[in-house]
Amino acid sequence: MRESYTATPRLLYVATQLFLKQGFAATSVDQICRTTGVSKGAFFHYYHSKDDAAEAAIDYFWELLDDYLFGGLDLFEPSPKIERIRERMIELPEHLHFENGSLLAVVANEVSDSQRGIRVKLEETYDKWSDKLAAALEATGYETQFSKRLARQWIAVYEGAVAQAKAHGDKNIIREQLELFGKLAYRQ
């Protein structure tokens, strides 16, 4: 019974890491179980399928992302809050040990057209991220509709910068792109 107590966090973490490192399609349930030391029976006790595990991994990734990016920001005034979020986005891959990229982008690029449940989960997660960024931008004086568009652009710049950093083996690309985005966005 000890396996069931610790299986879920290990399964989520390992599944997330494997999806990031080698993609959703290349990651098998057998590999997740072998890496975690959890039986297939235990895996299927928690998840009905690999798709179900991917949706749980997306939720797990969002919880980490949300806590790191937005946790404790109520203590800041609007403008420093935006700067703090930008700095945290720069540090995000290293801080959360997701050097292989963003789970959202990796899974979206691979399966969003073929697995409807995963696509819906990705859409909901991107919307939560976008809504939080838009609220922070709106608090600095941006109009609501512009804040929403700018938040989505910010996420797109971030996700693209993470992909480029991975392709070039240079995490400084994330900082460069987010600094440039900040300079352009703050011009209004």
Give a structural overview.
- The protein has 188 residues and is mainly alpha-helical.
- Helix content is 78%, strand content 0%.
- The chain contains nine helices and no strands.
- It has helices spanning 2-22, 29-36, 40-46, 50-70, 78-95, 103-111, 116-139, 144-168, 172-185.
- Helix 1 (2-22) packs across helix 2, helix 5 (78-95) runs antiparallel to helix 7 (116-139) and helix 8 runs antiparallel to helix 9.
- The longest helix is centred in the C-terminal third of the chain and has 25 residues, at 144-168.
- It is elongated, with a radius of gyration of 18 Å.
- Residues 1-5 have low confidence and may be disordered.
Name its key features.
188 residues; elongated; 9 helices; mainly alpha
Summarize the structure.
The chain is mainly alpha-helical and 188 residues long.
Low-pLDDT residue intervals, each spanning 5 or more residues: 1-5
> What is the tally of helical segments?
9
Strand-residue fraction?
under 5%
Number of DSSP-assigned strands:
0
Mind telling me the C-alpha Rg?
18 Å
Question: Helical amount among residues, as a percent range?
Answer: over 70%
User: CA-to-CA gap between the ends?
Assistant: 58 Å
C-alpha geometry: elongated
By secondary-structure content and strand pairing, the structural class works out as mainly alpha
Largest sheet: none
Can you write the helix and strand succession as a string?
HHHHHHHHH
Mean pLDDT: 87
